[in-house]
Every structure is written in C-alpha cells, then in structure tokens.
C-alpha cells in the first residue's frame, strides 16, 4: 500500500534500490522492483527507469566474488523490467568504491 501511495500522481518512476554495505545474498532489490512495477501498472504509469550495476555487462564469473550475489539480484531486477509491460530503461553506472575527493 505504501508503494501505491508513493506513485499516486506521478508521471514516471525511477527505481534505485540498494543494500548499502550489506553484500549478503538478497532478493530485496528485485522484489522491491516487482512491487514498484505492480503499483505503476495499477496506476497506469508507463515510464520507469531502473538503476542497476554495470556488472550486468560482465560474465558473472568475472564479477568480484564479494559482489556476485548482489549482481544476481540486479539481474533479477533487469529481468523484472524486461518482463513488465512498462516503458523502461536501465541505467547501469559503475561501482564507486572510493570516498569522495571533495575536489570538483
């Protein structure tokens, strides 16, 4: 119900879900994506973008072992977008591990 309330009156949605520093196996991001997609469908909202990892472009065996489980959930997120009837786009930035330099 909270997700349905959140999408009321919007023209589009951006799905950006993460686990912070928790790298344990999860389906939180893909299940959250499915919840948002369901709410968007019910509200008749077509445009949606999903933010996932650029690791999606790599063979899973080449992904840093510590990040493989998260990458698998990002794959499930992308699969949910692909399976939806929404007008979707995936944004896949690289992993940024360093602290901000403050020099911009």
From TrEMBL:
Signal peptide residue numbers: none
Domain of life, source organism: Eukaryota
Domain NAD(P)-binding, first and last residues per copy: 1-104
Coiled coil region boundaries: none
GO molecular function: biliverdin reductase [NAD(P)H] activity; riboflavin reductase (NADPH) activity
The protein's name: Flavin reductase (NADPH)
Species of provenance: Aceria tosichella (wheat curl mite)
Gene this chain is encoded by: BLVRB
